[in-house]
Amino acid sequence: MAKKKTSRRKKNGYRKFWQLGREEVNTAHFDISEKGTLIVREGNYQYNINDILRQHGTPTEIFFPTIVENRVRDLIETFNAYIKITGYKGRFRYHYPMKVNQNRECVLPAVAEGANLDVASANELYLVKRMIEQDKFNEKIRVICNGPKTDRYMGLIEELRGKGLVVVPIIEDMVELERMNKFKGEVGIRVDLNVKVKSHWDKRYNRFGFTEEELLALGKIRNLSVLHYHVSSQIEHITGFIQPLKRALALYAKMREKNPQLDTLDIGGGAGVPYDKRKRFYSGKSLISQIVKTAKRQCDKLDVKHPNLIAEWGRYVVAPAQMTIYKVIAEKEVYNKGGNSWYVINGSFMNDLLDTWAIKQKWHVVPVNHMRDHKLAHVWLAGSSCDSDDKYTAGGSYITLPRLPEEDDLFVAFLDTGAYQDALASHHCLLSSPLKLTAQNGEIKVARKRETPEEVGKQFGW
Ligand SMILES: *Cc1c(COP(=O)(O)O)cnc(C)c1O
């Protein structure tokens, strides 16, 4: 018995070391097999990532639609639970912002769990139109339209409204306000709130929406039902949600004097993901509870009707649903950095995980095999393009990985890569994009084949 106990502790030791099996950092369904390989569980199904890679090769992205389903369901249920507990009178709607990940295997599971949609362009709305025409979407689905309303975009909005769909364009400026005068459906308007919150996008100058003063000066706005704001993404603290919410509710109360049909507040995106598994981060539950409680308290204080609430959280829902995996193909010394090595990977940060370069994104990196190896190395990771910016150093610190095995490959997985990286992906040095697999119901399917040299060349007119 005693022996068993020690071996279990040892097993959990490695799991803990790689930050797996922890609900609060979204790794609850990750584990390590007896052989030291990465396991992902979906209920009682499990996927051995190492086996999948041996079959399909690298670089590879693995997407887990079930994670999207669970997170959407959980988000909606949690909002509804706090609405009930607090006696809040408005209702909640979740709108999935398509721009965060437009892949079919991501959008459809979200919609299946009751997500409405938020689109950012005519092309995203075109995909909605196709699903409606194929009778695939319940026509009760509601679509919020952000982004500049080009003629084509407006044409699609009108067309879908004509088919009976609730499509709510969000007015961003005076030109759009003018054009919307002829629009027959409900509209929303975007405010650029005068608050700053802590995050990468804490920009001093914002080019989206009207100022609070401008909105009040506008007085009555035709068919206005939604007041919308979106302050930032990956907001670091809960106060970054509460401050804008209070300000927006005060504005909503004032705007309702001239616009009594205004009944919905859309709080945009911004909910963050604990990319760094070693830091404390707020939970979705405490965030939602504070949002609903604040909304209730403020509205009662202002003596205004509780608005319906819309959240457009994208990253929060889909980042944890994907991992990106590379093989280490070489080790090189880092000059002037005592003892550290570069591990060169068979893919590119600049191409496949562009935020590494663009916003200095931190990722949680774990080995896929050799997870129980005692010998570890502090390394930096280098991409396969010829660009000196194509690297990941965890912000100048280091990444801990097993030493390169002598007779075996080493695979490394980047977690939480489901948000934004795909649509930003590029082809520096004409490297092929990773293969994309989906894992659901115990089955692995190819969602996007590995690009051949012909296919890559074709994109450049060859
Ligand atoms: C980008 C964006 C979102 C999603 O933001 P996340 O930080 O991913 O939640 C939501 N709404 C609007 C208007 C956006 O531009």
Please report the number of helical segments. Answer: 15
Structural class: alpha/beta
Assign the CATH superfamily of the largest domain. Alanine racemase
Low-confidence stretches: none
The main pleated sheet reads as: 10 strands, mixed
- Count of discrete structural domains: 2
Q: Which shape, going by the Cα principal axes? A: globular
Portion in beta strands? 15-25%
Tell me the Rg in angstroms.
24 Å
The whole-number mean of residue pLDDT values reads 94
Percentage of residues in helical conformation: 25-40%
Hetero groups in this structure are: pyridoxal-5'-phosphate
CATH architecture of the largest domain: Alpha-Beta Barrel
Brief overview, please?
With 462 residues, the chain is an alpha/beta fold.
Explain what this protein looks like in three dimensions.
The chain has 462 residues and is α/β, with parallel strands linked by helices. It has two domains: 160 residues, Lyase, Ornithine Decarboxylase, Chain A, domain 1 (Beta Barrel), CATH 2.40.37; 247 residues, TIM Barrel (Alpha-Beta Barrel), CATH 3.20.20.10. The chain is built from 15 helices and 21 strands. Strand 16 and strand 17 form a beta hairpin. Helix 3 packs parallel to helix 4. The longest helix is centred in the N-terminal third of the chain and has 22 residues. The N and C termini lie far apart (66 Å). Bound molecules: pyridoxal-5'-phosphate.
